[in-house]
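Researcher: Here's my situation. A collaborator sent me these components and asked whether they could plausibly form a single complex. I don't have experimental data yet, so a predicted model of the whole assembly would be a useful starting point for our discussion.
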Amino acid sequence: MGLPFEISKTSDAGGRRGTLRLPHGDVQTPVFMPVGTAATVKAVPQATLEQIGANGAGAEMILANTYHLTLRPGHELIRRMGGVHRFMSWTRPMLTDSGGFQVFSLAKLRKVTEDGVEFRSHLDGAKHFFSPEHSMEIQIALGADVMMAFDECVETPATWQRTRDSMGLTHAWAKRSKEYFEAHKHEVPWATLEGRHSERSSESQYLGLSESGAPGLDSETWVPTPLQIFAGRTQSLFGIVQGGMYPDLRRESAERMVEMEFDGYAIGGLAVGEPPELTREMIARTLEFLPRDKPRYVMGVGYPDQIAEFARMGVDMMDCVLPTRAARHGLLFRRAEPGEESSESGCPIHAGSIGMGGMSEEVSSETETASRTAIRMNIKRVEYAEDQRPIDPACACPVCQRYTRAYLRHLFMAREPLGATLNSIHNLAFYLDIMERVRGELAGLT
Amino acid sequence: MGLPFEISKTSDAGGRRGTLRLPHGDVQTPVFMPVGTAATVKAVPQATLEQIGANGAGAEMILANTYHLTLRPGHELIRRMGGVHRFMSWTRPMLTDSGGFQVFSLAKLRKVTEDGVEFRSHLDGAKHFFSPEHSMEIQIALGADVMMAFDECVETPATWQRTRDSMGLTHAWAKRSKEYFEAHKHEVPWATLEGRHSERSSESQYLGLSESGAPGLDSETWVPTPLQIFAGRTQSLFGIVQGGMYPDLRRESAERMVEMEFDGYAIGGLAVGEPPELTREMIARTLEFLPRDKPRYVMGVGYPDQIAEFARMGVDMMDCVLPTRAARHGLLFRRAEPGEESSESGCPIHAGSIGMGGMSEEVSSETETASRTAIRMNIKRVEYAEDQRPIDPACACPVCQRYTRAYLRHLFMAREPLGATLNSIHNLAFYLDIMERVRGELAGLT
């Protein structure tokens, strides 16, 4: 029983308009997934996530981080809470990463062997060990709709031989990931909810939609009712293509992954410091060797122009911390106006992605740069102090509909928490709008 | 042209059910006003503030701090932005304090003379000077519906003579405040909006309610349209009764203030470290000497039981940072269940109220204490780690309708910004619900 993925249109350039049918709902592709690192898209309430973006459709799918959640609050706790969907009250599709990239970004705190990776927590220095089997065990406990095979991400630059050795490890780990997944996928917390709770009250009670407003719960014995009934469905597992910046290795990795037959394929190890032309080239050289009928996911990208470009090339799924992280640092995206200077951006997005402090130099720079579709505004600049315009006069998000640049600058300068919330809502809406426009382009093909 | 205040019912104990008709709308009294220190109720979006609480009516009136706003972003900037309502996009009534209490809490950073108070900013140490005239000038620039006479707040404990001298200063400053206000009240930013903007587009465009979703603004010349048209109305000025913990001085202060004829009367200098019985007694001994037909406002209170009690005694307006500040420290209020232990709380709420770090010992304590109507929960306690109940099963707020204690604990422990937002929303809804119940009690009188 594969993952249902229907493609309605394909452009000459390879871009695809599709629908991914996951246990927690359908997702219109190409899709951008906001990152909910610790079971929360930082500073944004779930109800807002459900409403922002084009047509008020909200984010259809979000990502959560295996590494962060296993450290805190722990995947066994989340399993007991019914999985991360129920834990955070998010009823739509989710994806978890494998923890591999996060551990990779710990650099000196880790030790890689054939068996797995030993590392120290960035929170308290405690030793942990991730193997392919353990990553699967954690991801099944978390219960996202899509989970990722455990991989190693190679540093940049790396030699061909170093990259090939690392890739070999990724392939061996992918095989072990799949074997563990197939043997244990029935253990996902929500797989058994139907039986356990079939006699219980309706979804609307759990979600608080009852007429009375008050749930009227028996506080001693209350157990949440299931969010949805999953008729025998399980999670899906995606493989991750590695191969660094070497097209021959990318091809070899893609072919090996396809032989193993995953539900979808990710392209990993990009946006780690290479120039954007190279990111694009590696994606193009990998897509050639991925099957056309399965979803293709590029992990950890990118800037607004990049996500549009990659979607047009045939990438179906992307995620990135950039819109929310930039927002917390006062960097806002808006549409370019006619005549505004345009230039391409290209710097590491991921560098230092563990913890909240890591903001790459480029993202936090004082300068504002433009690109084909997006201008970056640094809201702390004095020129915005009395600017009564919204961030982006062409944006329909709730922030642009209500607040001025002057107010957002004040919130940022006064370090008011509302600033991070409003900035994040706008940047996420901006990203979701871009993908909606690309979906519209692809759907409009004759 | 006085401030319209209609009282529909009065209880034997003196509690009043009323309606305060302010330029930005009607307020049902008794009312609790959330504190929006720096033109934001910390961590809570304005749209949420408009919706929480009993019947989804939201907060009908909020408070902003003169001291904080004049330091950052500056009252002249806010004046140029059309006043604090428009600056923060809050269309409902607001009140500004005089800055007197905030300066009082700076303790060693201030120097009081008959002319006014010299103090150093807690932000950068820069010297500032507040006089009654300057406080009025600032508050007119901010443009809240209700502004407060400039006062001195005496330390606790203080001798009778020290308290009387300080009170004398407050009376002199109240007189100067009123004189300045009467001479300058026409300068409020929104007084002239009608004329300036009458030819411009409708309110719905500014608020983003247009059908298209996109405001379609000319980005070069766009000026916000007025939120409301104010038919010749101006702000109201309230006097502040001082007198420390001495009933005779409270009486004298009340009588002097009433002679000066303000639009309403506040009772200041309470909740500064005295036991709650004394707070209550001072309020009772002051209310006796305030006119029954004018609104009465107790500043800076209180715990949930206190706000209900004071409202039943005849207090019409209250404000307090407690629900939001406690929320950011993981302290949540919920209704007591039958049989839960009850005890009165009584500790300083205001102590150290400048800045965000100041949380009184009592509020941040590990212990949970109960009172007649409210239990305080410390969400970081391990007993909540897997607690799938909402904070308060009887609460209809959006947080209790969607999120578990387990999730809120996780957000707090992981220092996720969403935690402060959700905790604040619940605590504010809890306070608004209390006042709605008291209003219901008072309205139900025969």
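Model: Some features of this prediction you could bring to your collaborator: Chain A touches chain B through 58 residues (CB under 8 Å). The first strand of chain A starts at residue 5 and ends at 10.
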